[in-house]
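Predict the 3D structure for this chain.
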Amino acid sequence: MRVSTTGGAPVALSSAKAAWLPSISSDGQQVGFSSATADGKGVFLVVPAGGGAPLHQVNLPPDSDLATLSRDGSGLTYVLHMGDVDNLWYQSFAGGAPKQLTHFPTDHIYAYSFSRDGKKVAITRGNSKQDAVMLSNFR
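Done. Predicted structure below.
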């Protein structure tokens, strides 16, 4: 939904049943968001900021997360989970193979954000290794 900061009625941007992690192109003309198909597979949609039919629809890879529209609107970036290691990937809307942007050997990516010009990225990384302890015969 889109609603003016001065008020007014909300406008539906898409007929998708669910939408999460919306992102806006730097020119403000496109909105990208993750959704799911009827069979539960992840998909990334890009719609005009004023609403309407999707301009782009890309099936997300299994084990991917945190998909966002690139600043220039040419593609999307997402985190791909490969075992205990996460890396950032880019997929162009023009097609072709996805491009790996980071080459981390360990840890998970919890969040990321590109600079306004799209040339730098801030990434929050870490791991969540924990010990499991079983207690018995206690009072």
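The mean pLDDT is 91.
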